[in-house]
Write a structure and sequence with these properties.
Layout (H helix, E strand, L loop, with lengths): L9 H42 L7 H32 L5 H8 L13 H17 L4 H41 L1
Length: about 180
């Protein structure tokens, strides 16, 4: 059911418009959070590389990088979840969310990474370079390296979960509607 459908009550039409606006706003916010997070991380890692001799100092820029990633991930998950809600509860006869779900994944080479995971993984790797330049002792190398590895694993796991999210959310909302 599209938002102009006569079968949709005025309250449902307003809900539809509000939720579509939320999707639009969060989609835009996701890109800005990514850019601001990368800029903040780049400034911190540059300062860390120039001023700090301790390998553990790279954990502050890494924390900023993780915070930016988690914000991007959260915004994306929320947008997708709202989309599935619209699909199940407001678009009974088809509409944008039904079409987007039916379209599925575009061909390789045309896919977009909504989490910017490759950029975050590269930044995580680059964040580790000052650790190596600081000539760390073995304990520092292992501890700081393990934290960086955990961040990389988190990014990869989140990326994989995004690939299944639409189907999982759709199934759950259909269960909620049925029961």
């Amino acid at each position: 059911m599209c938002h102009n459908s006569p079968r949709m009550s005025p309250a449902e039409q307003e809900e539809y418009r509000s939720l579509r606006a939320t999707i639009r706003e969060r989609g835009t916010a996701r890109i800005w959070v990514f850019l601001a997070g990368i800029v903040a991380w780049a400034a911190l890692i540059t300062a860390t590389a120039a001023l700090a001799a301790l390998p553990i100092a790279t954990l502050l820029p890494l924390l900023v990088l993780v915070a930016a990633f988690e914000a991007v991930f959260s915004l994306h998950v929320g947008v997708e979840r709202i989309g599935r809600y619209i699909q199940v509860f407001l678009e009974n006869d088809g509409g944008w969310e039904h079409a987007a779900m039916a379209y599925g994944q575009p061909p390789r080479g045309m896919r977009v990474d909504p989490l910017f995971s490759l950029c975050f993984l590269m930044a995580t790797l680059l964040n580790f370079v000052p650790v190596l330049l600081a000539e760390p002792v073995a304990l520092e190398l292992w501890v700081v390296g393990a934290v960086h590895l955990l961040v990389a694993i988190r990014i990869v796991v989140a990326r994989r979960s995004v690939a299944r999210q639409r189907d999982v959310d759709l199934k759950r909302f259909l269960e909620l509607k049925a029961g």
